[in-house]
UniProtKB/TrEMBL annotation:
<dbReference type="Pfam" id="PF08859">
    <property type="entry name" value="DGC"/>
</dbReference>
<dbReference type="InterPro" id="IPR014958">
    <property type="entry name" value="DGC"/>
</dbReference>
<protein>
    <submittedName>
        <fullName>Zinc-binding protein</fullName>
    </submittedName>
</protein>
């Protein structure tokens, strides 16, 4: 029997059913190595702690692992957090037929992509606030 990849993101990744009355949201940060990619990870964790949704692993999604693909397709909403215009996380989701209800590109929020991994608490708050305010949603 082939071993099934297990997601350590903390989400159920498709196990169990949706909880009635609660929007089940998965948050996929791009997790890039530049400051803007690392910032998406921190924002996803903060959004998880604030109850917006659950951070999930874009790398596992990219492998096409059945559990996380199913969880993303079954989620009420998917949020993509990309660090830059390359939109790697969005492209991964698109390639698997996963429709994101909300998509944020950090550099479009006025945060410059740099060669370092440095960012501030204010940068994290900028991204988190943009998500809560509904930026990146289709109208």
């Amino acid at each position: 029997m082939a071993e099934q990849p297990v997601c350590s993101c903390g989400s159920s990744c498709g196990e169990g059913g949706p909880t009635e009355g609660i929007v089940q949201r998965l948050i996929f940060p791009c997790a890039g190595v530049a400051n803007t990619g690392q910032l998406t990870n921190c924002a996803a964790i903060q959004l998880t702690e604030e109850g917006y949704g659950k951070a999930a692993c874009i790398a596992l999604l990219a492998t096409g692992a059945e559990g996380i693909v199913r969880a993303a397709k079954d989620a009420d909403e998917v949020l993509i957090l990309d660090g830059c215009a390359a939109r790697c996380a969005g492209k991964i989701a698109d390639s698997l037929g996963i429709c994101a209800e909300q998509s944020i590109v950090v550099t479009e929020l006025g945060i410059e992509k740099k060669g370092s991994r440095e960012y501030t608490d204010d940068d994290i708050e900028t991204v988190v606030s943009a998500v809560w305010e509904g930026e990146g949603r289709e109208e």
